[in-house]
Amino acid sequence: MEYEDLVQKQHEVVGVGEKNRVVLRHQSMVWQLINVLFSESSHIQDEMEDEVEEVCEIAKRSLDSPDRSAELFLRRADFSSWLQDNVVHLVDEELGQLKGNKYLKQIFTFLTGRKLDEAVEKAIGSGDVRLSTLLSQAGGPVDIRTDIATQLEVWASEDLDQSLIETDRTAIYKLLAGECF
What we know:
Number of helices: 9
Structural class: mainly alpha
CATH architecture of the largest domain: Alpha Horseshoe
Radius of gyration: 20 Å
Number of domains: 3
Shape: globular
Number of strands: 0
Largest sheet: none
CATH class of the largest domain: Mainly Alpha
């Protein structure tokens, strides 16, 4: 943590060129990531979403001594928070580049940036009630992800005419099914 503080102080020094600021920012991000992934006691940061923080507090209180699964859950929540904090500017940049009525691409971008609430709101605002309902269940039970993956497999095995469903909608379904791009 001391090195991260030093990098942060260097980042704030007046007269440092933009190129060096970018390097310092990246060093700081890497040290934060190392802390999240490899520290002996990885704890949830203050910036985490309220519901994740609440769930972790309940887990901490319910366990007298944290077991391996609780530690993995906390580390995963820390990593998720780090990832969300460090890609938010990329998500905003990509959304700014989308022009016109490309709400499916916007929803996909929201999902890749872990902005589920915004994705659901965009689907509702676009009148896509079925998609908004499906999105609202994302991150829930694994059964939902499995059901979506199964449906995609059925469509593939039955040779679904790809012109019947938008490519962006299929990409959203694949993302919800847990497929990586």
